[in-house]
Amino acid sequence: MFIDSHCHINFPGLAERMPDLLQAMAHNQVTHALCVSVELAAFPQILDLAEQHPNILASVGVHPDHEDCGEPDVEQLLALANHPKVIAVGETGLDYFRLTGDLEWQRERFRIHIRAALASGKPLIIHTRAAAEDTLRIMREEGAERVGGVMHCFTESMAVAEQAMALNFYISFSGIVTFKKALELKEVARCVPLERMLIETDAPYLAPVPYRGKTNEPAYVRHVAEEIAHLRGISLEEVGVATTRNFFELFRAAETWR
Predict the structure, then answer these.
(1) Residue 61: CB partners within 8 Å, gap ≥ 6?
(2) Under a CB-based contact definition with an 8 Å cutoff, are residues 89 and 81 in contact?
(3) Of all helices (H) and strands (E), which one includes residue 110?
(4) Do residues 172 and 149 lie in contact, with contact meaning Cβ atoms separated by under 8 Å?
(5) Which end of the chain is less packed: N or C, by CB atoms within 10 Å?
(6) b vs e for 180-199, b when ≥16 Cβ sit within 10 Å of the residue's Cβ?
(7) DSSP 8-state secondary structure symbol assigned to residue 194
(8) Euclidean distance between CA atoms 172 and 88, whole angstroms
(9) What is the mean pLDDT of the chain?
(10) Quick one: what percent of the chain has pLDDT higher than 70?
(11) Contacts (Cβ under 8 Å, ≥6 apart) of 245
(12) Which stretches of 140-196 are assigned E, i.e. beta strand?
């Protein structure tokens, strides 16, 4: 009924608890989880999890915050994305909140990921923080709309959401939408069309209420869905059905493991 469209269950504290995580997912009707890459050095661990478990899927990419690592090129990303359980390219994008100074290397890395996604035909997972204008500009310049993707852990304005959706991107809400003070984001969750929405945990980060401050995990994505259902005045089932349908429409390579 629910899919965690973005998590990092290969991270310490989660990877060694996989039997418990999978059991909790099943108990909460979370059928699949997409384990998202943030660095190529850890990609084999993600792929190993995906190969062991039919309902765990993978992406390949290097997070914009990872400054001290080798820069991927299009050919390298393409080769890794060729695996059948790799359904997306990313997480990629721009982050001007955590890093400062000359960030041209970050923008070039983002462009490389978009080019790899276009060449592979697999959609993008985009991270943007304090960088919405440049993120959208580069998406347009590189033709990201031709492959589409998702704006993960969305915390921007409705105006940014509308521009992203016009570029063939979905908007994904995390546990932040359950936070009491996230009033603007709650309004965005009311307004984004249900057919353009995904849900996620970003585990182990950003656990939703009532688990805020604790380690997040895929089973908790149900609480994100509950908050969206409450905000929109619709049933939990309607949110689950729509976001699951959206997931498989976006990540078409996941259809084999539906």
Answers:
(1) 36, 37, 38, 72, 77, 89, 90, 91, 92, 113, 125
(2) yes
(3) helix 104-120
(4) no
(5) C
(6) eebeebbebbeebeeebbbb
(7) G
(8) 15
(9) 97
(10) 100
(11) none
(12) 149-151, 169-173
CATH number listed for the domain at residues 2-257: 3.20.20.140
101 vs 258 pLDDT, higher one? 258
Summarize pLDDT for 50-93 with one digit per residue, the tens: 999 999 999 999 999 987 788 899 999 999 999 999 999 999 99
Asked whether 115 and 150 are in contact (CB, 8 A), the reply is: no
Give the type of residue at 146.
R
pLDDT at residue 204 in the model? 98
Residue extents of the structural domains in the chain: 2-257
- Give the position of tokens 């590189």: 142
Distance CA 175, CA 169 (A): 20
Q: Which of 10, 136, 87, 94 is nearest to 249 (CA)?
A: 87
Q: Residue 42 in contact with residue 16, Cβ under 8 Å?
A: no
The predicted pLDDT at position 13 comes to: 94
Q: Given a cut of 90, is residue 166 above it in pLDDT?
A: yes
Q: Starting at the edge strand that comes first in sequence, how are the strands of the sheet with 124-129 ordered? A: 2-7, 30-35, 56-60, 86-95, 124-129, 149-151, 169-173, 197-199
Nearest residue to 59 via CA among 32, 86, 93: 86
